[in-house]
Amino acid sequence: MSVNGTDDLDKKLKQLAEYDMMHAVSDAIQLVRSAAVNNCSVNTGELRQSIFADVEGNSEKAEGICWTNKAYAPYVEFGTGPKGQADHAGISPDVTPVYSQSPWWIHESQVDRTIAERYRWFYIDTPQGRFYQCTGQPAHPFMYPALHDNEDKIMENMSASFKADIGKVLE
To answer: Would you say 143 and 47 are in contact if contact means Cβ atoms under 8 Å apart?
Structure first.
């Protein structure tokens, strides 16, 4: 017994198998990047401007990556010191930061004076310059919430993209 149209169906299924996942993953990671930028606390805007996104892979497997190249980004995301330990709501539950409990000193050459004054850090002047005492900062998560809070939207968008591609192949 022969079924009509199986060759056409086979051809369409092969086209569907060749669908490039890069496009859907690219859209998804750009959504995450946009949310991270919006979530990022701003002093100078430097951290916010350093949030990037990219997609690696091929038509069979694609991986979206969102990152910042600023070394101080984890301190913003997770907080620091006793203040960070006391207030780190919104960070990933898969991360367990260890917070220093002792205050630390920052030389004036390592921090902008206006920032130190904004935080009203205690300071001492020495022959080596001014030193500011820091007891930490609360967490200001921006990366983890960017992904976590958008998981449903990402899945909806990817599903819609796949359905649209299926529709194109089956036309």
So the answer is: no
Tokens of 71: 């070394």
* Residue 17: strand, helix, or coil: helix
| Structure-token pair, residue 98 | 């260890």
CB atoms within 10 A of CB 103: 13
Q: Where does the chain show beta strands of DSSP type E?
A: 51-57, 62-68, 104-107, 123-126, 129-134
pLDDT in tens, the chain (171 residues): 455 667 776 777 666 655 667 888 999 999 999 999 999 988 789 999 999 999 998 767 889 999 999 999 999 999 999 999 999 899 999 999 999 999 999 999 999 899 898 889 999 999 999 999 999 999 999 999 999 999 999 999 988 888 887 777 776
Tell me if 160 sits within 8 A of 31, measured CB to CB: no
| Contact in structure between 59 and 78 (CB atoms under 8 Å) | no
CB 37 within 8 A of CB 48: yes
Pairing mode, strands 129-134 and 123-126: antiparallel
